[in-house]
Amino acid sequence: MQRRLYTGRDPRRAHSIEELRAMAARRVPNFCFEYVEGGSEEEASLRRNREVFSEIAFKPRSLVDVSKRDIGITLFGRRSAAPFMIGPTGFSGLLAHEGDIALASAAAAAGIPFILSNASTTSLERVIERAGGRVWMQVYMYRTRDFVATLAQRAQNAGVEALVVTTDSAIYGKREWDLRNYARPLKLDLRNTLDVLAHPRWMMDVLWPHGMPRFANLGDLLPPGQDSVRGAASALAKELDPSLSWEDIRWLRDRWPGLLIIKGLMHPDDAARAVSLGADGIVLSNHGGRQLDSSVSAMDVLPDVVDAVKGRLAVMLDGGFRRGGDIVKAMALGADAVLVGRATTYGLAAGGRAGADRAIEILMTEVDRVVGLLGCSSIGALDRQYVQWMLRELRRATATAGEAALETEWQ
Ligand SMILES: Cc1cc2nc3c(=O)[nH]c(=O)nc-3n(C[C@H](O)[C@H](O)[C@H](O)COP(=O)(O)O)c2cc1C
User: Fold this and answer.
1) What's the CA-to-centroid distance between 108 and ligand 1, angstroms?
2) Can you identify the CATH homologous superfamily of domain 13-386?
3) What is the spatial distance between Cα 391 and Cα 345, in angstroms, rounded to a whole number?
4) How many Å lie between the centroid of ligand 1 and the Cα of residue 377?
5) Contact at 8 Å (CB) between 170 and 242?
6) What residues does each domain of the chain span?
7) Active site includes 267?
8) Beta-strand runs (E) in 176-306
9) Taking CA atoms, which of 19, 127, 157, 168 is between 20 and 30 Å from 41?
10) pLDDT tens digits for range 229-288
């Protein structure tokens, strides 16, 4: 049955991330919503990120006293109020005025870490000054390595706890909605221009009086005056470096004294390599289905990666987390923490800071409820006993039955 969703404008009245998503679709112009929503090519990776959760079911324990529950975790020796954090999303200023500050402030208020994208529209120093809290910084390995070194130095000076280097984007994914929405690079076509005019509330918030948001961290990388989103597009495309290799991770490790996290790995052998290079953590990710299409989801590979690294670094993951129960499934399979991308971005697009706050609140209360219903009083006590991969069990049973049948046939 199709459920009716809240159709008002107050994000505090949304009961699910899906409701925030529906509000976001109404509040921001089409080109912004597609920017958040879309994946690459056939969007098979994007779909896989959601499908995987329906293949994992809970196996609750009964008659356990769950009147006191704890959903907090300890990550890199520090307490976090929930097992998830806000992952890096670029251009957040396109969704709400100073969107990066709104997201970072919401995370700080909730007591969870926030990862700032290097493609943010607010500078990292300003985000830290305005929001406080636990801020990590995401970087791409641009061809101009000096810029990466300068950004790392800025992050260190500003008190950033962890550097998150994204490794899945050395070549840009094919995002057809992005190509379709523009008449020429970053010049909206007529249909989208008219659609923008039909969103005066968004225009008043985002465009007025500052104009289109600009890249606030990339000034040193881009030619003078090219930090506008439009000016930067071609410069940034040239800066992506397909020659990126483990040597570059070693180079960064030598320069960055803080926590180093590698984001975008998907293979147990790569995870083991990250351990040997001295990384402190990894984020299993297919970039929210925006890069390689037809990829496994991070959840698919999580158990094998956890087994491969054996606690030697923190294993985090992202992709498709929209319910507290999704986060609980990842924690039961051995994750140290989860990153959410679109969940909080929908909140931001639906209603700025209030929407981001609401997204976090929805996820936290859902995690708390699911942990209780599972008959477990602490998120840290969850393990694989509490979940079951439905299709895998079925495949295994079918394979065993098939083998038995074959054996009988040959006897
Ligand atoms: C609008 C948007 C912008 C993103 N920008 C970045 C970015 O600048 N750097 C990065 O490492 N990942 C970026 N990502 C990927 C996210 O960090 C994360 O891997 C992904 O969103 C997780 O999937 P989910 O959105 O289904 O939660 C972006 C994702 C979205 C949706």
Assistant:
1) 19
2) Aldolase class I (3.20.20.70)
3) 31
4) 31
5) yes
6) 13-386
7) no
8) 182-184, 187-188, 259-265, 281-284
9) 19
10) 666 767 777 889 999 999 999 999 999 999 999 999 999 999 999 999 999 999 999 999
The residue whose two tokens read 């493609």 is 119
- Tokens representing 219? 């000034």
- Indicate if ligand 1 lies below 6 Å from the C-beta of 138: yes
Average pLDDT on 69-78 reads: 98
Distance from the Cα of residue 251 to its chain's centroid = 25
| C-alpha atoms less than 13 angstroms from C-alpha of 171 in its C-beta half-sphere | 7
Instruction: Spell out the alpha helix ranges (H) of 288-389.
Output: 298-309, 324-332, 342-373
Please give the distance, rounded to the nearest whole angstrom, from the Cα atom of residue 288 to the centre of ligand 1: 6
Q: 352 with 96: CB under 8 angstroms?
A: yes
CB 76 within 8 A of CB 323: no
CA nearest ligand 1 atom 6, residue: 89
* Token reading at 162: 């962890």
Give the tokens for residue 104: 């970072």
Residue nearest to ligand 1 atom 13, measured at CA: 89
For residues 106 and 58, what is the distance between their CA atoms, to the nearest angstrom?
30
CA gap 185, 163 in Å, rounded:
30
Both tokens assigned to 70 = 């704890």
